Sequence to fold (294 residues):
Amino acid sequence: MVLSIVASCWICGGSSWKPFKASTLSGSVSSEDFKITDAHYGRTGKIDECVFCGFKQCQDLESVLSFYEELEDAAYDQGREQRSLQARKILESIIPFKKGGRLLDIGAASGILLETAARMGFEGEGIEPSRHLAKRAQESGLNVHLGIFPHTEARGPYDVITLVDVIEHVTNPIQLLRDIATHLKADGIGVLTTPDVQSPVARLLGPRWWHFRVAHIGYFTKGTLERALNEAGLSIVKVTRPPWYFTVEYAGERALTYMPEMLRFKMPAFSKNRTIRVNFRDSLQVLFRRSGNS
Fold:
């Protein structure tokens, strides 16, 4: 087996790697590739697997922040109703631990989770790097700060911190989690979601798995995620497999990308207004708190 030597592992600091997925990039990368609704499944830079801990990371893109700052995604809010259902399910998971209080949403996009949290009795604020999405949230009257976490205007401590499909986009996951730990109250609760590269669906689809995207540069398993949390002074409270909600049209169009061109068809008009619940059990939802607090 040929091992490649690249930068240090973002989880364990190791420097020995084996190839995991070849690059499928052609041409230049732009903010278009970082859309939340991007459907170019399987398109990534080269991904290597750490020999020591198994974490998988892409280092073809040294910095991705500028792409997020320029990101515009008009299609994102077309699924606002469905994304609100998803946000409610995520927030319901923390109710046994926190029924209210100050909430910080990192990667708030246009503020869907914050809107849902407000209806559930939380006092929420968010942080979002996309100028376009942050502006949309602010125009809706939501307290969303433009930038990245930590942010000078996001002053903890918080009762709840949410990190929904964010950690797979960063090159410093442990430092991000450490910053979260310092912003959580002693009895606070955090929740994060991220794709599970070791899930049966991920292994079945291989390089065509829908979570292999340009924007995803770190790929976790339950084991590597637990290691990252522990390194940051955080402990897992509960692990589940979250469901997602889409319009039938949205889910159908993406399913059709896996079919030969000749078999694809236009989704019927009614599919725009029908909601479907999907759970392929290929994502992790982790509740966590500061270590030493039970």
Notes: The mean pLDDT is 94. Residues 80-92 form the longest helix (13 residues). The helical segments are 65-69, 80-92, 112-119, 131-139, 173-183, 200-205, 222-231, 248-256.
